[in-house]
Amino acid sequence: MATIYRINKGVNKPIEFRGLKGQYIGYLAGGLVGLLLLFAAMYLMGTSMYVCLTVIVLLGSALFIAVNRLSHRFGQHGLMKYFAAKQMPAYLKFRSRRLFTTLKTTKR
């Protein structure tokens, strides 16, 4: 029985899939690809199938929970704004006024 998932995209609205907005869909997809590669590597190394499945299910659950929390906490662009704000300096220190006194104004 096939299940059809709808991706809701209205005019001027972000892509939303099951509560995930914008870039979080990509983060989840990248994490799932990483889990697939981890499973393949563990299986090829000869790890027991039960250990492989247990590790992948636990990490997959943690991935879903983490991405969902990020999506609900920050929204569509909030995570980028959060990291941008962390890169801003707390204050600027100038030892002279030369920077401001040598500014030239342009007339338009």
Low-confidence stretches: none
Q: Globular, elongated, flat, extended or rod-shaped: what is the shape?
A: elongated
Mean pLDDT: 83
User: How many helix segments?
Assistant: 4
- Output the radius of gyration: 23 Å
InterPro entries: DUF4133
Organism: Parapedobacter koreensis
Keywords: Membrane, Transmembrane, Transmembrane helix
Pfam family, one: DUF4133
Q: Tags for this entry?
A:
mainly alpha, DUF4133, 4 helices, two-stranded antiparallel sheet, DUF4133 domain-containing protein, transmembrane helix, membrane, transmembrane, elongated, 108 residues
How do the strands and helices of this protein lay out in sequence?
Blueprint: E1 16-17, E2 20-21, H1 23-44, H2 49-74, H3 78-87, H4 98-101
Antiparallel strand pairs: 1-2
Describe the model.
There is one protein chain. By secondary structure, this protein is mostly helical. Helices cover 57% and strands 4% of the residues. It has a domain at 21-84. Helix 1 (23-44) runs antiparallel to helix 2. The chain has helices spanning 23-44, 49-74, 78-87, 98-101, and strands at residues 16-17, 20-21. The chain is built from 4 helices and 2 strands, in the order ββαααα.
